Known about the structure:
The complex is a heterodimer of chains A (737) and B (254). Chain A has 737 residues and is mainly alpha-helical.
Amino acid sequence: MTTLPPKQTRFDFLPDNFQVQLNRFVTEQITRSWVLTLWLILLTVFTLNVIVNRLQAAPVSTIVVLVVWLVTVALVAVNELRHKHNALSLWLKNNMYNNLTNVQISVLIVLGLIAAVIGFYRYAWVNASFVSVPAADYRAELASVTSDEYCFTMGGVDTAVSPTTIINDPTSRCFPTADLTTDLSGVAVGQAAASFCFDSRPSDPENGITCFASTAENPNFFTVEREFTGANWGAVEANLTTLMIFRFNRNETWRIWAVIILLGVLLVPTMFVYRDSYKNKRGRRLMTILWLASPILIYLFLRGVDPVPFEVDGPGSVISGIWNEMFAWTSPLQELTDAGLITVVNGRPFLRGDGGILSPISFWARLRATFTGNQDLLGIVGLVLFGSLTWLINRRYPPREREGELAIFGRAVLRFLLIVTAVLAIFAVFDVLSMIIGSFSYTRELIVNGQPTAVTQPIFSSIDPDVNWGGFLLTVIITIFAIVVSFPIGLVLALGRRSQVRGIPAWLTYGVALVIAIWGFTQSTPDLIAAARNDIELVLAYWPILVLVLAYAFQRAFNGNVVAAFSTLYIEFVRGVPLITVLFGAKILFPILLPPRTEILDSWRILWAFALFSAAYLAENVRGGLQAIPKGQYEAADSLGFSAYQKYRLIILPQALRVVIPAIVGQFIGLFKDTSLVAIVGLFDVLGVANAIAAQEDWLGVRREPYIFLAVLYFIGSAVMTSYSRYLEKRTGLGER
Amino acid sequence: MTTAATLTQIEDVIVAQNINKWYGDFQALKNVSLTVKAGEVIVILGPSGSGKSTFIRTLNRLEEHQSGDIIVDGITLSHDVRNIAEIRRDVGMVFQQFNLFPHLTVLENVTLAPIHVRKWSRERAEEVAMKWLTRVGIPEQAGKYPGQLSGGQQQRVAIARTLAMEPNILLFDEPTSALDPEMIKEVLDVMRDLARSGYTILAVTHEMGFAREVADRVIFMDAGQIVEINTPEEFFTNPKNDRTKLFLSQILHH
């Protein structure tokens, strides 16, 4: 018996068991639980509400979206019932229309996105103003008004004027020009109208400037309104340079461009030289040296040097200038000056030619004074001497696998001397360079007080970072400095925390602690108790107990391992303190702790604060990577005879750092954005400048536009770092399974 | 003092006397003493946890022993880092998990230690590396990364890496335990080849065939002690110790 084909009907696309399927659908999707039903009712009401609203606000786009939505939902529904999906309906079903909730959320998201995009487009483009110098521009024209046909809108003296606020300003009034008793140019300063309208500047609706004709009540007056609802990009445009470099001398901006070009020029070969396929070891080494030398040049460009005053006796040294700024506490300047050993010029110590006076000054201070004067010479002579010595010795006695104690010691000493003198020589080259460059000056035509004037100034004239570094420039300087400096410190801290160095034996720790404690109890505590003025001082008098407790803690927690103890305490201390506190400490607390008459620039302190703060977090990230390396890698390296240094450099760190690239880059992006905190300690980063724009007379209260600009700037910066990290991961991920 | 001279002068290349090692309260090695002559091939057998791996790992100070003396190639193992480094240069080790460096190519894996530890030039190191890669049968894989090789190939690279340092003594720590059965043979072939070419070898392994075939002596360890030292012939056919008999009956009739 043959089965008949099913009878053809008009609804043949519906399955036979349609009723059953519909019932199942209702049970599963709607009436499964009362919570679901209630939620769907609420959601539907909300969706309908949104749809009605959007239909009123933007009918065309909403109708298009609704039609597409309904058609696709119907398509998915029908195909679902037929159990026959095509690629589109399957994708829609899996990704957008899984259930009734998602069906509605899909349309809500699309409508929301369209509303946001259209809204932002209207705000940022259609209704926006791109006039960058409104008030000043109009003021200049105001000053030339003589006819009594015109009038202008005027802000009150107390309400500063901005283009966006003037229209609703109740104090705005219109004056006949004849009523003006004061000089118009005088009015213009500080209190005058932001905008007005007259023959020479007719209505300009595109830029939101509308002129109204006189009314019946005020036949002689025009009211002038500047009306636009969108973004006021003029605020960003007018302040673009300020946002970028703040108070950096506008005549010296070529130095910033030079740094950018320098970095660009270095970057291009870098992309090829450090590839695995690049076999030329020398090229790679040259590139590394160039990169290591680049901070000196960048310092020269962005910080500058004073021309070296040759008239002072004794060899001057620029490096002592840096010393003075960064490590002033290491050289007791005043002491040396009082002793007549040095002369201080422009805050830099210069060794005096007749420095051989016998004075009660300490040997070390004399040595230091001599050293700061002659270190350049020392560096260059030393480098040549020890460099050639090393070369000769290595040629005569090449390094061997097994060497005697003396040979190892000798080579170590020579290497140490070579490194020290090389560092000095780098500074010496820097000194000589800046001495040569500093002695050149150049003349250029600048506008001074409105007059073109020929100005002669030294190349790389000194720039005060505290005053002149700001805006995005400061943001970038802090970020790069913190990244570059915190990386090696963080690495050392991470290795230090895991170090297995043989610790100080317990008997020694306890012995020393006991001796100190006994001495303290017998010699110090009684005096302190007698002198105590309050309970706190009384408690502090028993400090020897603290010494014992600390000794015990040191042995219990770290087994006497000083390296691990220091690293761990540093990391945990810094991580326990908010960045803002560290910055306040660097700004306010640190100078108090410095010896008198020593000063370190605010900028240096803040830069180091960021670097040291970042190092602690970096150390923990790196430690995570080190722990991810299997024990077998350490054992394989050990069994092959690598030294500890070789083991980490060649085997462990390349793998560990690769694991933590995402974490480290994430941290650096965070750092990039955290730089805004410097605004609190008185430096102006890009956010600080953006806030300052809103306080400008012309742009009072204009915050949103600079912030949007900042968001884009930060996004680009973060995106660059992210994509570089992805590139690094991909490159170093070679050969990973 | 060349290596050859060392070999002729020092008959006993490894001398271990009364080695004791504790992990906390657990004693992993109990008075273990062993003297190995130059060129000898020794296979160490024993149930898991018997201290066989721990013992050979104390010989190059991957594990620290608490008491007893170890003299390798005439150098007394002490806390002195330079003594440890010297011993490690002379003692090669092959691990159960291969422990190749995954971020380096096969060739770089093999040349890394000769270049940085032996201070050879890159050319010489690469020449020697290719020699050993050829000897273990995989010269064509030199440019690949370890992750692209099979387990057996990886273990052979690990052996080549060890041999490239030109050690006198080879320690094998269960080199075939992590391999698929069909890959075990290729590694064992290499080991047999090495055993016949004069290296002093200490191997911890469960490959009875290998032990019977190439070992000069078989050592049986249990609970941190050496229970029996015997020739392979005697060991497998006529074991003296009861524990050895039990062990052999279990592995031969499972």
